[in-house]
Amino acid sequence: MGQSPPADTAPEDGKLRSRVEEFVRERVIPSEPVLDAGGPAARETLGALRRRARDAGLWALPLPAELGGGGLGLRRYAAVAEAEGASDHGPAALGSATLLDAGMLARHATAAVRDRWLRPLVAGELSASYAMTEPDVPGTDPTRVRTRAEPVPGGGWKVTGRKWFASGAAEADWVTVLARTGGADGDREGLTLLLVPTDAPGFRFVRELPVLGAAGQGELAFDAVPVPAEHVLGTPGRGLAVAAERLQLGRTLRALRWLGQAQRAFDLMCARAAGGGERGRAALGGHQLVQQHVFESLLALRTTRPLVHEAVALLDRGEDARTEVGLAKVAAARTLQRVVDAAVQVYGAEGLGPDTALPALQRTGRAARVLDGPDELHITSVARRILRTYGPQPPAGS
């Protein structure tokens, strides 16, 4: 893996990144076939990887040190996130996959919820899922959700509705659900995030929803599921603010991990192109069209990485990063798909088969252009935001 770290990476962070790269390359990637298959063998393998990560001092690097994590801030974690993300299973094996849920609980959960669930979540003893998208509802418009949470006399809520494409829902101990608690369809107010335990009466895991053949997403049903009052995240009716905060960080983390996978595909392509030819033929890298694949892929990587790290820097400083996150998400998704496609071309038929990681990377690259909002959503929202700055300005002093 030959990724270039950000220019301001400290030497100790560079060493940490190298250790993570080695762990992913030597431990996680060889385990991918078992992890991809799911089931008891996958759970056992993941548990063993997590124990090795703890023993190596690589566990939960971006999580708070007081909760058992590594205490890296977002800016320092960014280069490590690329190395972890070279495998889809890297974040789970190294304990950083819970960053979004742990951060959300730390900032917005009640003391009772934090005391019960936060530390076990960081330790990898519990798992969580996030459910916002619904069948037959535009996923790009969360104000249209039909799942409802009705108040119960004496306190608490009853949640009724359906969700789908909830990551990791099959193994989750609880699901964070966006539900309407007031207002009308389309209103931004009146939406609330609630933590719903998966062992609560009325909760049902309906089915697995394979994404281009890969497991990991689930469809869920809620039939008047009782939820305690203290399970509300933030203020009732103001759930979109919490969701938006989560989405910005989540999109940026995905972009970092997609960079790691694009770098992995690039390394595979270059190794293939530089290898010796068969029956005395020159290596593939001697062909100009192969050289063009290498050049275009390197250009995509080198131009996308600064965009993603610019978004990281703004989020780390607590500044408005909506434009930068939108640019980073679209650029990283495109780069992953472009580089993997080039690698497949260089490999030929072997790149379509089970003997390389390229089919799985190709699947991730295609899904990346839809996950966390399709490219079109980010393109239009960024463009509108920029164009507003060129519109009529209010008079001075207004």
Automatic annotation (TrEMBL):
Its cofactor is FAD. SUPFAM superfamilies: Acyl-CoA dehydrogenase C-terminal domain-like, Acyl-CoA dehydrogenase NM domain-like. Residues 12-125 form the Acyl-CoA dehydrogenase/oxidase N-terminal domain. Residues 130-225 form the Acyl-CoA oxidase/dehydrogenase middle domain. Keywords: FAD, Flavoprotein, Oxidoreductase. The keyword Phosphoprotein does not apply. InterPro entries: Acyl-CoA_dehydrogenase, Acyl-CoA_Oxase/DH_mid-dom, Acyl-CoA_Oxase/DH_mid-dom_sf, AcylCo_DH-like_C, AcylCo_DH/oxidase_C, AcylCoA_DH/ox_N, AcylCoA_DH/ox_N_sf, AcylCoA_DH/oxidase_NM_dom_sf. Residues 237-387 form the Acyl-CoA dehydrogenase/oxidase C-terminal domain. Coiled coil: none annotated. Gene3D superfamilies: Acyl-CoA dehydrogenase/oxidase, N-terminal domain, Butyryl-CoA Dehydrogenase, subunit A, domain 2, Butyryl-CoA Dehydrogenase, subunit A, domain 3. The keyword Transferase does not apply. It comes from the Bacteria. Belongs to the acyl-CoA dehydrogenase family. Homodimer. This is Acyl-CoA dehydrogenase family protein. It comes from Streptomyces lichenis.
